Amino acid sequence: MNVLRQGIGLFPDAGAAKCTLRQNRRVLPLGQHADSVVAPLLAPDVPVVTWWPDVAPGSPKADPLGAVAQRRVTDAAASDTPRDMLLGLAKAYQPGDTDLSWTRSTSWRSLLAATLDQPYPELIRGEVLGEPDNPSADLIAAWLGLRLGIPVQRGESGGPGITEVSFETADGKVSLSRPDGRNATLAWPGRPERRVALHRRDAPDLIAEELRRLEPDEVYAETLRALAGRAGGAAQ
Question: Are strands 19-22 and 97-99 parallel, antiparallel or unpaired?
Answer without folding.
Answer: unpaired
